[in-house]
Design goal:
heterodimer, A: 183 residues, B: 260 residues, mainly alpha
């Protein structure tokens, strides 16, 4: 066959459209070899790579989505915490105000009490002093009155007992007159 | 001047089919046979070495390799077969694309300078022995024989008398012409492209060596055209590899589709 072709070529009776069987066989085998190499070794490598790449990209997207969700959750949490803290602060402020109010009331009450106590103490002391003064004055007045009476009468009263009785009576009368004015 | 022409008395032999059938290198082994084996080695080594240590975040080299692989995988296989079914066909489509691409590009690589696919046997073998059985096999397997034949031959939406005409045409196309046209497309493009490059290059050479003195500078224009055509060829070679893989994927996608 090959010889025939060579001879044909030499004779110049060539037809390019007539295929040479030997070339068809070689071409076919060569192509099958190439197909074998590519489908057995090359293509699996590339396909594995593409699969891995797709996975990687999808994994990356999923990771990013997860991170985003986490961030959103954290933000939500912070917001809640902030609101809670604000409410807490407001409550504490209210409490403090109420407490202050209470303390003020207590203090005022205490002061009032103290004032009352001081006033009543003063009053008691005053009344004691007054009683003392009254007693002193009474004795003094008795003496003065006796002296005055002696001078006026010009004679000393004989009877001590009688004299005291007179003075006491006089003072009692005086007391009963001035008693309503004391209160 | 006339004397010059007479002295050299060479005659320009335009490049022909003969230039595509070079004498064998040794024994019965010819240049395209060596090249096709080389292409498989180049692609295999390239992919094996660069895919040895793939990273999630690609480096420059890995990015380049991934671009090639993804072109076959996403732009061709997934687009044409659909994201549901394309996975098992990725190696086939990537192999088809790179195999045809490298063998085409051989046409403009210095020293190599021969597009393997300009020998009809190579694309034909792949179209008839690989693509054709694969797409019919997956079609039969998916739909069962009668349902698959119905899908292929009786596209829905036509009034029944039309089917008398349509069914034979569809049969001819799906079961006979598709693999041949698939191979023919890349073969013809490579054959013609290589021939054009040969014409401009050889003409330039002839004009310089054997042409009249005034015609010698014209060889520069010829070579400039050859260079311009080389760029065009590069584009066509990539495009043809793309089309070959794209149509193969399309046939598979059509065979798998529920209704035509």
């Amino acid at each position: 066959m090959l010889q025939a072709q060579v001879i044909l070529a030499a004779e110049g009776e060539l037809n390019p459209v007539v295929p040479h069987p030997i070339e068809m066989i070689i071409g076919f085998i060569a192509f099958l070899l190439l197909l074998f190499v590519i489908s057995k070794f090359v293509s699996p490598r590339f396909e594995a790579l593409y699969e891995k790449r797709t996975e990687e990209i999808q994994g990356g997207i999923e990771k990013a989505e997860k991170a985003q969700a986490e961030a959103a959750a954290a933000l939500e949490q912070y917001k809640a915490q902030l609101a809670e803290a604000r409410a807490e602060a407001a409550r504490i402020r209210d409490d403090a105000r109420a407490e202050a109010e209470q303390i003020r009331d207590e203090l005022r009450a205490q002061a009032q009490e103290e004032a009352d106590r001081i006033v009543s103490q003063g009053e008691a002391r005053l009344s004691a002093q007054r009683a003392q003064i009254v007693a002193e004055l009474r004795a003094d007045l008795g003496r003065q009155a006796v002296t005055l009476a002696e001078r006026i009468v010009g004679e000393s009263l004989e009877d001590e007992v009688r004299r005291r009785g007179t003075v006491d009576r006089f003072l009692s009368e005086l007391d009963s007159v001035s008693a309503p004015a004391k209160n | 001047m006339g004397r010059l022409v007479l002295a050299e008395s060479a005659e320009f032999v335009p490049p022909s089919v003969r230039d595509f059938f070079l004498p064998p290198i040794f024994g019965g082994v010819t240049k395209p046979m060596v090249l096709v084996v080389f292409s498989v080695i180049i692609i295999s080594v390239f992919f094996l070495v660069t895919s040895r240590n793939l990273k999630i975040i690609p480096g420059k080299m890995q990015f380049a390799v991934e671009s090639i692989y993804d072109f076959g995988r996403n732009n061709i296989a997934r687009e044409q077969i659909g994201s549901k079914d394309f996975k098992p066909f990725i190696p086939l489509i990537v192999s088809l694309f790179t195999f045809v691409l490298v063998n085409n590009i051989f046409g403009i690589i210095p020293v190599v300078q021969f597009p393997t696919m300009s020998h009809f046997g190579f694309p034909l073998a792949i179209a008839v022995f690989v693509v054709y059985p694969v797409y019919h096999f997956v079609g039969f397997k998916r739909h069962g024989f009668s349902q698959y034949m119905k899908n292929q031959l009786l596209p829905p939406g036509a009034p029944w008398p039309v089917y008398i005409l349509l069914a034979p045409i569809e049969f001819l196309q799906k079961f006979l012409l598709n693999p041949i046209t698939l191979a023919l497309r890349v073969f013809a493009a490579m054959f013609a492209g290589h021939l054009i490059l040969l014409v401009f290059t050889l003409a330039g050479e002839f004009l310089l060596l054997h042409g009249p003195i005034l015609a010698k500078p014209v060889s520069l224009i010829s070579w400039a055209f050859a260079i311009a055509m080389t760029f065009l060829e590069a584009f066509i070679q990539i495009l043809q590899a793309y089309i070959f893989a794209l149509l193969s994927a399309t046939y598979i996608g059509m065979a798998l589709a529920e209704d035509h």
